[in-house]
Amino acid sequence: MCLAIPGKVTSIEKENGLRMGLVAINGSMTRACLEYVPDIEVGQYTIVHAGFALKVIDEEEARESLEIWKGLLGE
Amino acid sequence: MKYIDEYRDAEVVRRIAERLAQATTRPWTIMEICGGQTHSILRYGLDQLLPEGISLVHGPGCPVCVTSVKTIDRAIAIASKPGTLLAAFGDMLRVPGSSGDLAAARSRGGDVRFVFSPLEALQLARENPHKEVVFLAVGFETTAPGNAMAVRQAAREGLMNFSVLVSHFLVPPAMEAILASSGNRIQGFLGAGHVCTVTGTEPYLPIARKFQTPVVVAGFEPVDLLSAILRLVQMLEEELVGVENAYGRVVEPQGNPAAAAVVREVFEVADVAWRGIGVIPASGLVLRESFREWDALRKFELGGVDTADDVRCRSGDVLAGRITPDSCDAFGRECRPEHPLGAPMVSGEGACAAYYRYRCSSAKPFSC
């Protein structure tokens, strides 16, 4: 239940007073509430859990940590 | 898919496993708290990549599994009343109550719907003004912000035909209860990544210090999990105590303050009973008094029926990490996904379901 899936925000709109958006996840569009990621913009990645975006994915952090592990391959 | 495929790179996983073997000089027993991580570990066979001596123990981080039989019975009672609509996450429909489950209540004519988001339940209330719409609000810290938002939104819209049946749990008190129990063998924890997305890593520091037990926050993909195990083993080997974050792209030390604020506005901390484990002090969330009009327990006369787990089900021992699912006599025999004795056999995060799905052929000699 605590699974949260990464996806890319493709549109943002207000609905019933809440900031909502469409998030492309693995080829399909999911409607998600964006109230908890108030600064997110179209094109950014987030993780969605039970219809709520909980965090803008830190691209720089992701790249840096992955480079460390990819670096092992060259050893 | 971005942020998934690169974390499933088999060659990277193999290299991390080699590092782990080099780093390990003694046996260590580690618990992954989150049931989602248990499923990933079994699905990708990560436990089979670990050096001899590293034992993974599966924790109680499955909200569906720890929701009490009483809550399931209450949900079934609500769904069976005329004029009500009960909405729940799909995982909840097959969880056994003391007699039957929500799916059976639906087949008897109860209006039971499954939803992906608490806001869908709220929409059902808007669309069905003549029905009492009750959402079975189950979860850990990850799910609490969404459930809290649904309640707050209902209050703002004055949506009086909406209410929630709350079954909310908190991870740190469960970790503390495990570490304080007699015969505890857990030496380090993999922290539940998405719980920490909301709460941050700070709530774990006092536990790490009090019990001298390191915690490394982990994600859910193979590279995330194995790199977190490597860091945890390094800390154990070096006798380092503290909390480290191996899931930095999604977890920040302070968590998500906006989400935590709405949770605090709507819920307060309370003692709650964990199915199979019992009451743990200050380990759950209940609605604050100011939101009592959206509390299903106050809206419906549900009686005080005493309910108990099926005695054949050892889910309490599984959830506390005392046994593995395949050590239970009922596993794969009386207890199977099509006729579960306990919730861990049906939940997408249940350890028994993970063993049944990914380990059956190598488990006991029965035909799965």
Overall average pLDDT of chain A: 92
In DSSP terms (H or I, runs of 4 or more residues), the helix count of chain B works out at 15
Tell me the overall shape of chain B: globular
Helix content of chain A: 10-25%
Keywords (chain B): Iron, Metal-binding
Family (chain B): Belongs to the HypD family.
GO molecular function (chain B): 4 iron, 4 sulfur cluster binding; carbon monoxide binding; iron ion binding
Protein name (chain B): Hydrogenase formation protein HypD
Topology:
The complex is a heterodimer of chains A (75) and B (368).
Chain A: E1 5-15, E2 18-25, E3 28-33, E4 45-49, E5 52-56, H1 59-71
Antiparallel strand pairs in A: 1-2, 1-4, 2-3, 4-5
Chain B: H1 10-23, E1 28-34, H2 35-43, E2 54-61, H3 63-66, H4 69-79, E3 84-89, H5 102-107, E4 112-115, H6 118-127, E5 132-139, H7 144-157, E6 162-169, H8 171-180, E7 188-192, H9 193-199, H10 205-211, E8 215-218, H11 222-237, E9 243-245, H12 257-266, E10 267-274, E11 278-287, H13 296-299, H14 315-319, H15 351-359
Parallel strand pairs in B: 1-2, 1-7, 3-4, 3-5, 5-6, 7-8, 8-9
Antiparallel strand pairs in B: 6-11, 10-11
Helix pairs in contact in B: 1-11, 2-15, 6-7, 7-12
InterPro entries (chain B): Hyd_form_HypD, HypD_1, HypD_2_sf
Family (chain B): Belongs to the HypD family.
GO biological process, one term (chain B): protein maturation
